[in-house]
Amino acid sequence: MTAGPKKTYVVEHLDPELGAWSTLEYIAIAEESEARGADFRLSSVPPDLILPTELQDNQGLVVEHRSVEELYKAEKNRVCLLDPAAKDELRPSDGEKFDIFLFGGILGDDPPRDRTSELRKKGYRGRTLGPMQMTTDTAVRVTRMVVQENQTLTSIKYIDHPEIRIDEHESTEMPFRYVEDDSGRPVMPKGMIDLLKIDSEKGVGDLL
User: Fold this and answer.
1) CA-to-CA distance for 10 and 182, rounded, in angstroms?
2) Residue 25 near residue 108, CB atoms below 8 Å
Protein backbone atom coordinates (compact mmCIF):
# COMPACT_ATOMS: atom_id res chain seq x y z
CA MET A 1 0.00 0.00 0.00
CA THR A 2 1.20 3.53 -0.75
CA ALA A 3 1.95 5.47 2.42
CA GLY A 4 1.30 9.16 2.87
CA PRO A 5 -1.75 11.42 3.13
CA LYS A 6 -5.20 9.91 2.74
CA LYS A 7 -6.34 9.72 -0.86
CA THR A 8 -9.47 11.53 -1.99
CA TYR A 9 -11.47 10.63 -5.08
CA VAL A 10 -13.60 13.45 -6.45
CA VAL A 11 -16.28 13.15 -9.12
CA GLU A 12 -17.28 16.54 -10.49
CA HIS A 13 -20.98 15.96 -11.15
CA LEU A 14 -21.56 17.58 -14.53
CA ASP A 15 -25.24 16.77 -14.98
CA PRO A 16 -28.29 18.66 -13.63
CA GLU A 17 -29.89 15.30 -12.79
CA LEU A 18 -28.83 12.04 -11.19
CA GLY A 19 -30.00 8.82 -12.81
CA ALA A 20 -30.23 5.29 -11.43
CA TRP A 21 -27.02 4.26 -13.24
CA SER A 22 -24.93 7.02 -11.62
CA THR A 23 -26.53 6.39 -8.25
CA LEU A 24 -25.34 2.77 -8.25
CA GLU A 25 -21.88 3.84 -9.39
CA TYR A 26 -21.58 6.46 -6.65
CA ILE A 27 -22.70 4.00 -3.98
CA ALA A 28 -20.04 1.54 -5.14
CA ILE A 29 -17.34 4.21 -5.12
CA ALA A 30 -18.36 5.40 -1.65
CA GLU A 31 -18.38 1.92 -0.13
CA GLU A 32 -15.09 0.85 -1.70
CA SER A 33 -13.34 4.13 -0.81
CA GLU A 34 -14.45 3.98 2.81
CA ALA A 35 -13.40 0.32 3.10
CA ARG A 36 -9.90 1.20 1.89
CA GLY A 37 -9.35 4.30 4.00
CA ALA A 38 -9.99 6.86 1.27
CA ASP A 39 -12.48 9.71 0.93
CA PHE A 40 -15.05 10.14 -1.83
CA ARG A 41 -16.50 13.54 -2.65
CA LEU A 42 -19.19 14.41 -5.15
CA SER A 43 -18.61 18.04 -6.13
CA SER A 44 -20.66 20.66 -7.99
CA VAL A 45 -23.93 19.03 -6.94
CA PRO A 46 -26.80 21.45 -7.72
CA PRO A 47 -28.37 22.72 -4.47
CA ASP A 48 -31.83 21.79 -5.69
CA LEU A 49 -30.85 18.23 -6.63
CA ILE A 50 -32.46 15.78 -4.22
CA LEU A 51 -30.22 12.77 -3.84
CA PRO A 52 -31.64 9.26 -3.38
CA THR A 53 -31.84 8.08 0.22
CA GLU A 54 -29.13 5.49 -0.43
CA LEU A 55 -26.70 8.33 -1.14
CA GLN A 56 -27.94 10.73 1.53
CA ASP A 57 -27.38 8.09 4.20
CA ASN A 58 -24.08 6.79 2.84
CA GLN A 59 -21.26 7.37 5.33
CA GLY A 60 -18.61 7.02 2.64
CA LEU A 61 -19.83 9.98 0.59
CA VAL A 62 -19.36 13.70 1.12
CA VAL A 63 -21.66 15.84 -1.04
CA GLU A 64 -20.33 19.25 -2.03
CA HIS A 65 -22.21 22.01 -3.80
CA ARG A 66 -18.90 23.77 -4.40
CA SER A 67 -16.76 22.97 -7.44
CA VAL A 68 -13.46 21.14 -7.20
CA GLU A 69 -11.77 24.41 -8.09
CA GLU A 70 -13.20 26.02 -4.96
CA LEU A 71 -12.56 23.00 -2.76
CA TYR A 72 -8.89 22.60 -3.60
CA LYS A 73 -7.79 26.07 -4.62
CA ALA A 74 -4.77 25.95 -2.30
CA GLU A 75 -3.92 22.33 -3.22
CA LYS A 76 -4.13 22.48 -6.98
CA ASN A 77 -0.68 20.95 -7.40
CA ARG A 78 -1.87 17.86 -5.49
CA VAL A 79 -4.86 17.27 -7.79
CA CYS A 80 -4.59 14.74 -10.62
CA LEU A 81 -7.19 14.88 -13.39
CA LEU A 82 -7.97 11.47 -14.89
CA ASP A 83 -8.06 12.55 -18.50
CA PRO A 84 -8.38 10.27 -21.55
CA ALA A 85 -6.49 12.90 -23.56
CA ALA A 86 -3.50 13.04 -21.20
CA LYS A 87 -0.12 11.97 -22.56
CA ASP A 88 1.11 10.16 -19.45
CA GLU A 89 -0.42 6.99 -18.02
CA LEU A 90 -1.21 6.73 -14.33
CA ARG A 91 1.59 5.03 -12.39
CA PRO A 92 2.01 3.85 -8.78
CA SER A 93 4.50 6.68 -8.21
CA ASP A 94 1.66 9.16 -8.82
CA GLY A 95 0.38 8.11 -5.40
CA GLU A 96 3.30 10.10 -3.98
CA LYS A 97 2.78 13.10 -6.23
CA PHE A 98 -0.99 13.48 -5.81
CA ASP A 99 -3.51 13.16 -2.98
CA ILE A 100 -6.67 14.12 -4.87
CA PHE A 101 -7.86 12.29 -7.98
CA LEU A 102 -10.45 14.05 -10.08
CA PHE A 103 -12.96 12.50 -12.46
CA GLY A 104 -15.02 14.68 -14.77
CA GLY A 105 -17.96 12.51 -15.67
CA ILE A 106 -16.79 11.58 -19.19
CA LEU A 107 -15.82 8.02 -18.37
CA GLY A 108 -19.29 6.50 -18.42
CA ASP A 109 -20.55 8.05 -21.63
CA ASP A 110 -21.24 6.02 -24.76
CA PRO A 111 -20.29 7.39 -27.16
CA PRO A 112 -17.72 9.34 -25.13
CA ARG A 113 -18.19 13.06 -24.76
CA ASP A 114 -15.17 15.16 -23.84
CA ARG A 115 -16.73 16.79 -20.82
CA THR A 116 -13.39 16.50 -19.04
CA SER A 117 -12.27 19.38 -21.26
CA GLU A 118 -13.98 21.79 -18.85
CA LEU A 119 -11.62 20.66 -16.10
CA ARG A 120 -8.61 20.34 -18.40
CA LYS A 121 -8.85 24.06 -19.17
CA LYS A 122 -8.36 24.82 -15.47
CA GLY A 123 -4.79 23.58 -15.65
CA TYR A 124 -4.86 20.37 -13.62
CA ARG A 125 -2.11 17.88 -14.35
CA GLY A 126 -3.58 14.88 -16.14
CA ARG A 127 -3.06 11.14 -16.31
CA THR A 128 -4.78 8.61 -18.55
CA LEU A 129 -6.03 5.13 -17.67
CA GLY A 130 -5.52 3.89 -21.21
CA PRO A 131 -7.44 3.93 -24.49
CA MET A 132 -10.55 1.99 -23.42
CA GLN A 133 -13.67 3.71 -22.07
CA MET A 134 -14.52 2.87 -18.45
CA THR A 135 -17.53 3.51 -16.29
CA THR A 136 -16.91 6.06 -13.55
CA ASP A 137 -16.77 3.48 -10.77
CA THR A 138 -14.32 1.38 -12.80
CA ALA A 139 -12.10 4.41 -13.38
CA VAL A 140 -12.00 5.17 -9.65
CA ARG A 141 -11.41 1.47 -8.87
CA VAL A 142 -8.49 1.25 -11.30
CA THR A 143 -7.01 4.51 -10.01
CA ARG A 144 -7.18 3.23 -6.43
CA MET A 145 -5.55 -0.08 -7.43
CA VAL A 146 -2.67 1.86 -8.98
CA VAL A 147 -2.02 4.61 -6.43
CA GLN A 148 -3.01 2.78 -3.23
CA GLU A 149 -2.16 -0.83 -4.08
CA ASN A 150 0.89 -0.15 -6.29
CA GLN A 151 -0.41 -2.10 -9.27
CA THR A 152 0.42 -1.01 -12.80
CA LEU A 153 -2.26 -0.48 -15.42
CA THR A 154 -0.89 -3.43 -17.38
CA SER A 155 -0.92 -5.79 -14.38
CA ILE A 156 -4.63 -5.32 -13.68
CA LYS A 157 -6.92 -7.90 -15.27
CA TYR A 158 -9.71 -6.42 -17.37
CA ILE A 159 -12.76 -7.54 -19.28
CA ASP A 160 -13.59 -5.44 -22.34
CA HIS A 161 -17.14 -5.12 -23.68
CA PRO A 162 -18.61 -7.95 -21.59
CA GLU A 163 -21.86 -9.53 -22.67
CA ILE A 164 -24.46 -9.45 -19.91
CA ARG A 165 -27.21 -12.04 -20.02
CA ILE A 166 -30.61 -10.39 -19.54
CA ASP A 167 -32.64 -13.59 -19.79
CA GLU A 168 -32.40 -16.92 -21.59
CA HIS A 169 -33.14 -15.25 -24.93
CA GLU A 170 -31.49 -11.85 -24.65
CA SER A 171 -28.13 -10.38 -23.76
CA THR A 172 -26.54 -6.95 -24.06
CA GLU A 173 -22.94 -5.94 -24.70
CA MET A 174 -21.56 -3.30 -22.34
CA PRO A 175 -19.40 -0.85 -24.31
CA PHE A 176 -16.85 -0.37 -21.52
CA ARG A 177 -13.76 -1.85 -19.89
CA TYR A 178 -14.24 -3.43 -16.45
CA VAL A 179 -11.93 -4.89 -13.83
CA GLU A 180 -12.09 -8.69 -13.79
CA ASP A 181 -12.85 -10.31 -10.43
CA ASP A 182 -11.42 -13.59 -9.10
CA SER A 183 -14.21 -15.58 -10.76
CA GLY A 184 -13.56 -14.07 -14.18
CA ARG A 185 -16.56 -11.74 -14.12
CA PRO A 186 -16.66 -7.95 -14.57
CA VAL A 187 -16.76 -5.96 -11.34
CA MET A 188 -19.98 -3.93 -11.44
CA PRO A 189 -21.98 -2.04 -8.79
CA LYS A 190 -24.50 -4.01 -6.77
CA GLY A 191 -27.85 -3.84 -8.51
CA MET A 192 -26.46 -2.90 -11.93
CA ILE A 193 -27.40 -6.15 -13.64
CA ASP A 194 -30.91 -5.93 -12.18
CA LEU A 195 -31.15 -2.37 -13.50
CA LEU A 196 -30.09 -3.57 -16.94
CA LYS A 197 -32.74 -6.27 -16.85
CA ILE A 198 -35.48 -3.85 -15.81
CA ASP A 199 -34.54 -1.31 -18.46
CA SER A 200 -33.31 -3.68 -21.17
CA GLU A 201 -35.71 -2.22 -23.70
CA LYS A 202 -34.09 1.22 -23.36
CA GLY A 203 -30.55 0.25 -24.22
CA VAL A 204 -27.40 1.15 -22.30
CA GLY A 205 -27.12 4.66 -23.77
CA ASP A 206 -30.45 5.71 -22.27
CA LEU A 207 -29.43 4.62 -18.78
CA LEU A 208 -26.30 6.78 -18.54
Assistant:
1) 27
2) yes
